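Help!! Second protein's tokens look totally different from the first
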Amino acid sequence: MQENRLDDINLVIKKITTLLLREGVVIRAPKEYPYLPHIMALFAKQTNLLESIILLYQENLGEEAVILFRSLLNNCMLIHYLLDDKDGTKLKEFTVQPIKNHLNFLLNIKRSLKKGWFPEERAKKYRNLNKMIKDVEKKLEDKGFSAKPEALRPLSISTLSKTSRQLSLMYQTYYMESSKYEHSDYSVLGNYIHEYEESDKEIRFSVTTYLADEKLNDFSLNTSLSVYFKSFFAIITHLINCKVDLWNEQEKLNVQQLTLDIVAIQGVDLEKFIAKYQ
């Protein structure tokens, strides 16, 4: 990828940080949109992930960039999930996840203790484990959620994909390709083995940590940009539709120009883009 395009991308990210995330500026939004702070936080995390992916891209570390892309994709799906929260139930499900995860953690501790897997000194720390579990269960039930084990499934990317057509398409398009690198799938481990030979008595091989895969490197950056900008346009469109007064007149013009800059970077047909988001 040409260096000047990377410069353009970095400039766009800085403008997004200023115009949308408004780092350091207090954002005021109507109370009927309680999910907005969480959406902005998710997008801020996406921004950090994208900047990290760009650094990995420059070092030709496409596989590691794809692993970060999967996290970026997860945040994008969470953003779309929360933006479609018509009655507040999705926000409740999202914000209760830490309690569910804590309860799952304690239940796993309990199973490990029963199997005698913990050293005695560590096991002593959990002598009040049953009370700890009861307290977390009550906290969960007070928020209107079941504490039964079958109801503690986390809000995973797979679960999110089943909530709308758009999220399902995103999951089907990107998930499998990126997951095999994160999970060190057998199909990609061969990339690290070179000069493999096999005989009746032995195998001979060499290992490399440097994977110069230009195609994968380009995939990691281009898909990351696509998903990141998808989040950006979804948030911008939502803010405009909800009439959240975020910008003054000059900033509105800057946002419009920023939108055109992103369209140019992505190589998208401008007329089709306008028809989609108008």
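Here's the second one for comparison:
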Amino acid sequence: MDNIVYLQALREEKENQLTTFICDHLKAVQTHVDRHVNIREKVKAKHILTKKLWNEKSAVLTLSQELLFKDWFTFDYLTIKGLTNYQTYIKYGNRMKHPLDSVVHALFMASVLEPFKVIKYDKPHIHAKKLLTNEVCTIKLDEGIPDLQDNEWVFLRSIPVFDDLFLISDMFIQHDNMMMDELHKHFEKSTDSWRTFLKKYSIKYSWNCTKVKLSSKE
């Protein structure tokens, strides 16, 4: 019995170390994008995205759309070098080396903005179902959510940490169920893998979402 308790405590310690490292890494990435990415690159990316989504040269974005743009600009938008801004940060801007670097970098690069259907919120976890497979999963949060409802569709970016997924982005509610049906039908006609499809089209199907309010950010 003592061995079981010790292993559980060790697992929790390792999980806490990893999630702390992930949070610190995410803050460093966000700081890099905010401070060091060329402003002309941001303007160009926003022009490309708004034209792609609305066929307009420019538009005033809502708060949720600004946050979605920032996520897409960091992880999915390809610069003239053929790299995402996250890949550029890893290649040129990440001077600190840590034993967890290679693992965390690989997890971040594989992450996508993915839709989940909420089953229930049980702080600090969301129990949810994946759109494509109906697989039930648990998403761990660092912050509380005052008003997340059951059966809502949310778009979020996460990475696996032990048996759970760990949130690494803002969360966005998609109130339009027809949009989710369209996403599923669009994927069924596509030749892309699910991950590739989401990297290309998640921004389209989440663009009219509303940001989930996290209690510590209000």
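Reply: Different proteins will give different token patterns, so don't panic. The longest helix spans residues 2-36.
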